[in-house]
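Input (structure):
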């Protein structure tokens, strides 16, 4: 099962494309795929334009679960990582994948749900095949459990995923990334932003946050070692158990 997590503000936000996002999801998935998905969306408590979404949901008779959450805006974008961590506590226990997206995305191809569900769910980070990191990362549940459901200190999920992937690669010679064919695009004014420039912005403060990501990555590595008797772990084609002596 896949849980999609994100925060949305409809009021005063011309970039939000939430209903189009939901429609694209329905268009590019089958009923069987939708049965294996749930959405968890957080709104600000002063967002009175959410009524537009509620009307759409009532009229749409959707065949998958959308859970709506509302609380104070607080830090706005700066608190998005807190939103993701809180929503993680409400996912379906059957979920094996947690997909962090945003309200200005749309899905663009069929079979992406099946492609994700059939992927190796052991400590894996799914991203697009043509990027070094991903704007909408999809985490295996085992990976996020190893992070204690903590989405770091950066508001954007791509910054968090890029940081832990980079740290694991540098410190333990482990690449948790798994690239698959592109299946979404960004529909807002941010869609034209060069991803390399964005990546550089995200990583600019990496050294300052390095200790945090080293601790998170160490915990992931130790969880990997603890799971080495799990038969499914042997399906990895990556070097997930380097010589610990090299990393003392």
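Output (sequence):
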């Amino acid at each position: 099962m896949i849980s999609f997590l994100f925060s949305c503000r409809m009021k005063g936000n011309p970039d939000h494309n939430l209903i189009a996002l939901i429609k694209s999801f329905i268009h590019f998935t089958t009923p069987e795929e939708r049965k294996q998905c749930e959405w968890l969306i957080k709104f600000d408590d002063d967002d009175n334009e959410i009524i537009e979404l509620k009307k759409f949901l009532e009229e749409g008779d959707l065949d998958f679960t959308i859970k709506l959450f509302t609380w104070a805006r607080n830090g706005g974008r700066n608190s998005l990582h807190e939103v993701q961590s809180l929503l993680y506590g409400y996912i379906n226990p059957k979920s094996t994948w947690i997909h962090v997206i945003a309200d200005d995305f749309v899905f663009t191809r069929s079979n992406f749900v099946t492609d994700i569900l059939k992927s190796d769910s052991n400590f894996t980070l799914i991203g697009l095949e043509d990027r070094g990191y991903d704007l909408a990362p999809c985490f295996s549940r085992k990976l996020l459990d190893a992070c204690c459901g903590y989405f770091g200190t950066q508001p954007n999920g791509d910054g968090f995923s890029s940081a832990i992937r980079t740290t694991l690669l540098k410190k333990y010679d482990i690449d948790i990334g798994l690239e698959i064919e592109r299946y979404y695009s960004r529909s807002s004014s941010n869609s034209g932003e060069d991803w390399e420039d964005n990546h550089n912005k995200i990583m600019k403060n990496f050294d300052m946050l390095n200790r945090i990501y080293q601790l998170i990555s160490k915990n992931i590595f130790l969880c990997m070692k603890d799971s080495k008797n799990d038969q499914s772990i042997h399906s990895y084609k990556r070097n997930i158990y380097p010589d610990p002596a090299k990393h003392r």
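Notes: The longest helix spans residues 210-226. Residues 2-228 form a domain with the Spore Coat Polysaccharide Biosynthesis Protein SpsA; Chain A fold (CATH 3.90.550.10).
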